[in-house]
Design goal:
By secondary structure, the chain is mainly alpha-helical. Helix content is about 70%, strand content about 0%. It has one domain.
Amino acid sequence: MAKEAKAETKRGPGHRAVDARDAIAELTERAQEISLEAGTKVSEAMRDVISAAAGIAGFAVESARDLIQYMVRRGQMTPEEGDKLLRDAEVAHRKRPASERRKATATEIVTKQRQVARAKAAAQRERAMQQHIAMVTRAHQAANKPKKAAKKAKPAKKKSGKRR
């Protein structure tokens, strides 16, 4: 019986370092994504709270909660202080008139504006595509249109005149 030998690819002695570098690069990339995601959430919460404080937009208890959790995680506030501040904010928010409580937050306003802008851009792209399709269709029709035969030049008329 002949045993079939598996063809193994020989790796150099430094192959493990390359694998480790790939893993570290992947982890670093994922950490960056998480950081951006968290930064976006905090910036949206800040926008909401500042806009509400200025009276520009409605107050969102969720945004206040996000900011308090962020501050507690960073050690800028104790969990007890955060809980008390959040309870006070919720009580004050409930005391506001219903019309103010229903007022859109800054994030909701920005989201709506982005949706409108995206819809306009999509409509513009659609119009441009329709114009392009119409132009290409006309060009194809013109190219495929049977060409008229070139008119043959009429032979020149002989002058009837006497020769001298």
